[in-house]
Amino acid sequence: MNTLVWFRRNLRVAGNPALYAACQASMQEDGAVAGAFFYDAQYTGEFRFAGERMPRCGKLRAGFLWQSLLNLRNNLQQIPLIVQRGEAAGLLVELCQQLDIQEVHTQKLWAHEEQFVAETVRSTLAAIGITLVEHECYTLLPSAIVTAKHPDALSSFSKFRRKVEREVEQSAEVAIHSLVNNPTAAQQAMLQEVAALGENRTESPIPSAEVNEPRSVLPFVGGESAGQERLNQYCQQALGHYKETRNGLIGADYSSKLSPWLNLGCISPQQVLHAVREYEHRHGANASTEWLIVELLWRDFFQYLAAKRGSALFYGRAEPMGSSGAEKSGSVSAVSDTVLTDPSLYGTKAAEFAQWRTGTTESEFINANMRELNSTGFMSNRGRQNVASMLIHDLHIDWRWGAAWFEAQLLDYDPGSNYGNWQYIGGLAANPRGGSWFNIEKQANVYDTDGAYRTLWAQRRKE
Ligand SMILES: Cc1cc2nc3c(=O)[nH]c(=O)nc-3n(C[C@H](O)[C@H](O)[C@H](O)COP(=O)(O)OP(=O)(O)OC[C@H]3O[C@@H](n4cnc5c(N)ncnc54)[C@H](O)[C@@H]3O)c2cc1C
């Protein structure tokens, strides 16, 4: 039996249950395996803000993705990887017919659009007698633990953490499989068939660029190999002081910087957990090692919250919290269901939005963060919280414009983590304080005491 792996955000060979299952199924019946990745509307689509058009996947994110796909193709060795532009359902039907595929294995994802795409694929393939099998390999904890055992845990992170923290070790027991690379005659024939289709792209299907900015916290390079290297490097030493440095702004090691690789699945949260446990074995556990796992739970929390909220993750109006500069909480109402493309709603805010996104506001701290984002595809967690707070609570701009800008720019963009964190700051989801409103000046003074970060990014990128 021939099988196909529809790669989504699991761009790795090691510890990839979808790839493993496809290999097992094909080996049992003397068949072959192929892989495919599709640049669908999530990558090729556009946003419109007050008449302006902007790609959903900006050049830097596209560059990181393309590097990850090239690395995957290399690591898959005898398994061909087909990369096409278009919607998965139609393309998969064609490929399955061309390559005589009987089973498609893929990754289970949690956000609304991702689930919708999977359901469309499932029914389209079923119509031609092909089964779609989804494998959970994006979160640390399996959904069975979260949704079945603790269905009410998603109302707040602290509740979620209390309920699931003890279960984390179960996840560590998931075996890290590696692909048995022993090409059979059928596999060699598959390679030739794919070659005959002429599917060997050498360029990204969408405009892309590499991170080429000396001030970048890391020279981010996409792919499983670079992700593993960063994980190993971070867990040599820096992990040991994570809790003290995680609110930093400058340099490679104030935090792990693993998110871009985690969110394309170049590395898995289980691999991170495993590396943390190995560090503890060598140096002993401390508050920092524990805290990195807590952050992985935040990541899980936003995945399962995304699944629960469905399309509501992308809608709702966040009410600005008051009008003076103090940090405080307030109430919100989720009412508006307008879409990002509605130019009338926030048309008058176009100028403020342009200042925010280009880093030309009155706040040098905000500007520094936005400049870093735009020229490197990364921003610290402290920075993200502040720029989001400013957009929502000080500038009174629709939060979805900010979230969409992040979607385009962030190397680590993930729908659950991005829209979930924006909703959290806007007070639309899971925030027991009803939103987060920061005093930007105060934050700048606490976290950039000597102004080094503002100085570093005082100059915009030289073109
Ligand atoms: C408005 C806003 C938007 C965000 N958008 C994204 C996004 O699109 N993708 C994304 O991965 N993170 C997002 N975050 C969360 C967080 O800022 C990043 O995960 C973190 O900065 C990545 O850097 P790191 O890998 O060095 O994190 P570390 O501090 O080293 O944490 C380790 C890992 O834990 C996870 N993590 C940590 N904090 C969070 C969090 N608040 N929510 C979810 N996961 C978390 C990440 O996977 C991260 O790699 C957003 C936060 C805010 C406030």
Describe this entry's structure for a reader.
The protein is α/β, with parallel strands linked by helices and 463 residues long. The protein folds into 3 domains: 1-137, Rossmann fold (3-Layer(aba) Sandwich), CATH 3.40.50; 224-309, Serine Threonine Protein Phosphatase 5, Tetratricopeptide repeat (Alpha Horseshoe); 315-456, DNA Cyclobutane Dipyrimidine Photolyase, subunit A, domain 3. The chain is 48% helix and 8% strand. The chain contains 21 helices and 7 strands. It has helices at residues 17-28, 41-44, 59-76, 88-99, 112-126, 143-149, 157-164, 168-172, 185-196, 224-234, 242-245, 259-263, 269-283, 287-309, 350-358, 364-376, 381-394, 399-409, 415-426, 440-447, 452-456; strands at residues 2-6, 33-39, 46-49, 52-55, 81-85, 101-107, 131-135. The strands form 2 sheets. The chain has a 5-stranded parallel β-sheet with strand order 5-2-1-6-7, sandwiched between helices. Strand 6, helix 5 and strand 7 (131-135) form a beta-alpha-beta unit. The longest helix is centred in the middle third of the chain and has 23 residues, at 287-309. Flavin-adenine dinucleotide binds next to helix 12, helix 14, helix 17 and helix 19. The site of flavin-adenine dinucleotide has 29 residues, from helix 12, helix 14, helix 17 and helix 19.
Global geometry? globular
- CATH third-tier fold name of the largest domain: DNA Cyclobutane Dipyrimidine Photolyase, subunit A, domain 3
Which range best describes the helical content: under 10%, 10-25%, 25-40%, 40-55%, 55-70% or over 70%?
Answer: 40-55%
What string gives the helices and strands in order? EHEHEEHEHEHEHHHHHHHHHHHHHHHH
Please, what is the oligomeric state?
single chain
- The helix count comes to 21
Kindly provide the name of the CATH class of the largest domain: Mainly Alpha
* Beta-strand percentage range: 5-15%
Structural class: alpha/beta
CATH architecture of the largest domain: Orthogonal Bundle
